Amino acid sequence: MRIMLIQPKMNKRPMDTDLKTRMSPSLALLTLVSLTPECHEVIMVNENMEEIQYPMDIELVGITITLDVMPRAVEIAQRFRRLGIPVVAGGIHITSSPEECLQHFDAICIGAAERVWAGMIEDVEQGRLQQIYHDMSDFRGEEIVSPAYHKIDKSRYLYTNVILTSRGCPNRCDFCYNSCQNKIYARRPLEDVIKDIESLGTRHVLFIDDNFIGAPAYTRELLNNLRGMNLKWSAAVTTKIADHLDLLDLMAETGCQSLFIGFESINNSSLHGVNKDNHFEKYERLAAEIHRRGIMINASMVFGLDGDERDVFARTLEWLVKNKIETLTSHILTPYPGTELYRRIKREGRIIDHELAKYNTAHVVFQPKGMSAAELYEGYLWIYREFYTLRNIVSRMPHHKAQRKSYFLFNLLYRKFGRVTALLARVIPMRLVGRLAAQISYKIK
Ligand code: SF4
């Protein structure tokens, strides 16, 4: 059978450039490739960088779906279905809102594909495709397959060395997909993770777990296994890392360069209103402990939480600059359907925009409590602009000299002048740009 796997075009946020869409390949599609029996031919299409063709000889289409690409995924599905080609869908949005999605596709896969994908293909061949495929009871990390890294067109992406050590998160913050009904949390066997790192043949790795320290004992063991591998790596963690300073020591020792941290807010009432177990009074010490070990911080902040008032933007900026936070990823609070937050906001009658393409954390789709929707949007744009002014980039410059190259590379070439870099990247293969950045930052190829 000829199978086409599609990643629909994403909706860029105001501060995103083409670099964002070319950051790294879809691990979801690469995992499906690994799960596809060898007798079938698989074509992967990333609509962010190529047009979808609608050839008649395709016998099955699979689409991976996040919330904001859902409207586009429906258009793609309609076109293939009109040609009589069955379309199946999976991904985060399908898993969190299966009932709403079902009508648009011939079949959906809820949750992990590992146990069901080969069966779906067989059912298409036999003409007995069912509507729902869902088998996640007692899903174990041992079942997670390695993505088909060898199928990546490396010239297209900034980073191809992306690795998962776990799926899901043990926490349930109300605004996160991990608060949905079909959530899982599974950790891969350490030997599988190490095998993936070795097979990539690189010394620069991005761990893209939702929460790299979901199980500190597991992370500790993993880090002990990374000793001697001479890696440079980055990952996403929660502020709970403050309670495990030995882990931070191990991270620094094994080559951790930067941590993406879900601070989310400087307002404790906002944090606790969404079941986020963060405490603002601990942030300053945490930032200092991380910096002391020569690790940079990418702070994730969410605006529009119920405790937020108009002054939250200026107060947050002040804290970020004072604590020399190296990079900022900010979001407008977005109630993803299926999450606890969505249920509450809907119950309170505060959803003001139902257009799913806008659910990408860059639009105000609900009525905030402490400010108007327009003030929330303006504040969100303002803090990005201010955080990346030349003056603030210089003010936030890391104490550690060794970090300054990568700091300026990211702040200037990715954020401040990202559009120019993106234009440049049209003529230079993305992989080369990524390699160059790694070489300049970490002196590795
Ligand atoms: S800690 Fe992070 S990944 Fe885990 S549920 Fe909360 S927001 Fe989601």
UniProtKB/TrEMBL annotation:
Q: Which InterPro entries match?
A: BchE-like (IPR051198), Cobalamin-bd (IPR006158), DUF4070 (IPR025274), Elp3/MiaA/NifB-like_rSAM (IPR006638), Methyltransferase_Class_B (IPR034466), rSAM (IPR007197), rSAM_horseshoe (IPR023404), rSAM_sf (IPR058240)
The record's section on Gene3D superfamilies has: Cobalamin-binding domain, tm_1862 like domain
What positions does the domain Radical SAM core occupy?
155-372
- Which residues does the UniProt record annotate as the domain B12-binding? 57-131
Query: What cofactor(s) does the depicted protein rely on?
Result: [4Fe-4S] cluster
Q: Keywords, A to Z?
A: Iron, Iron-sulfur, Metal-binding, Methyltransferase, S-adenosyl-L-methionine, Transferase
Q: Origin, by domain of life?
A: Bacteria
Q: Does the keyword tRNA processing apply?
A: no
Q: Which GO terms describe its molecular function?
A: 4 iron, 4 sulfur cluster binding; catalytic activity; cobalamin binding; metal ion binding
Any one GO CC term of the record: cytosol
Q: Name one Pfam family in it.
A: Radical_SAM
PANTHER family listed in its UniProt record: ANAEROBIC MAGNESIUM-PROTOPORPHYRIN IX MONOMETHYL ESTER CYCLASE-RELATED, BLL1977 PROTEIN
What is this protein called in UniProt? Fe-S oxidoreductase
Organism name: Desulfitobacterium dichloroeliminans (strain LMG P-21439 / DCA1)
